[in-house]
Amino acid sequence: MKLIASTTSPFARKIRVLLIEKGFDDIEVEMHNPWDSKDELLALNPLSRVPALVLTNGVVFYDSALIADYIDSTMQGPKFVPEGVNRWIVLQAQAHADNMIDVGIRPLLERRRPQDKQVKEIIMRDELTVARGVGVAAKLVKSMDAQLNIGHIAIACALGFVDFRLPHLKWRDRHSELSAWYQDMRLRPSMQTTVPFEGEPVA
């Protein structure tokens, strides 16, 4: 089994954290820059996105939520998606975090355009949406049981993305409880091992 990832993708980071927390920190991780669309990545995911999970039989899964479900459903170790009513709360938290990242990528890419080509309204709207999303994330964290789950991991990776790519939002100033929770989360070995670093664009 092999995980295709990048050094900056928060979606790939979510899967890397999950694997470590499940006890599979020895799975091969192959880094790609999805913006290059090289043949090696396109052969695995024609959409040129990460993460992608290559199984030993050659089957490839892509989309981080699908990969997380596969890992939690089929691999040994603690479960990160609970049963019953809590399942839907946790999956909602993961979906919210993933969507928050998707929205946050748009102003990031807009700011990379020449300044005279940037649409300020897009930047302001999407950054405001991310800021609202952080507020919802704070409520979702409080609604979930304390036991670590995929919702916690996804929200932590989304907050890590905001810190890394949109630090000017200064979300901690408005969400002290979430900040304290995230401070504990980010000190976990799985989070420390997967801190994003510059070297390729965000996926």
Provide a descriptive summary of the structure in words.
- This protein is globular.
- It has 8 helices and 4 strands.
- A 4-stranded mixed β-sheet has the order 2-1-3-4, with helices on one face.
- The protein is of the alpha+beta class and 203 residues long.
- It has helices at 10-22, 39-44, 64-74, 85-111, 120-143, 150-165, 176-186, 189-193; strands spanning 2-5, 28-31, 52-54, 60-62.
- It folds into 2 domains: 2-79, Glutaredoxin, CATH 3.40.30; 85-189, Glutathione S-transferase Yfyf (Class Pi), Chain A, domain 2 (Up-down Bundle).
- The protein starts with a strand and ends in a 10-residue tail after the last helix.
Throw out a few tags for this protein:
four-stranded mixed β-sheet; 4 strands; Glutaredoxin; globular; 7% strand; 56% helix; 8 helices; 2 domains; Glutathione S-transferase Yfyf (Class Pi), Chain A, domain 2; 203 residues; alpha+beta
Give a summary of the structure in a few sentences.
This protein is α+β, with helices and mostly antiparallel strands. Helix content is 56%, strand content 7%. The chain is built from eight helices and four strands.
- Major beta sheet, specifics? 4 strands, mixed
Along the chain, the helix and strand elements come as: EHEHEEHHHHHH
Structural class: alpha+beta
Shape: globular
- What fraction of residues sit in β-strands? 5-15%
Predict the CATH topology of the largest domain: Glutathione S-transferase Yfyf (Class Pi), Chain A, domain 2
CATH architecture type of the largest domain? Up-down Bundle
**Quantity of strands, as a count:** 4
| Domain count | 2
Measured as a percent range, the helix fraction is 55-70%
Uncertain segments: none
Tell me the distance between the termini: 22 Å
How would you write the strand order of the largest sheet?
A: 2-1-3-4
> Please, what is the oligomeric state?
single chain
Mean pLDDT: 95
Rg measurement, Å:
17 Å
| CATH top level class name of the largest domain | Mainly Alpha
**Number of DSSP helical runs:** 8
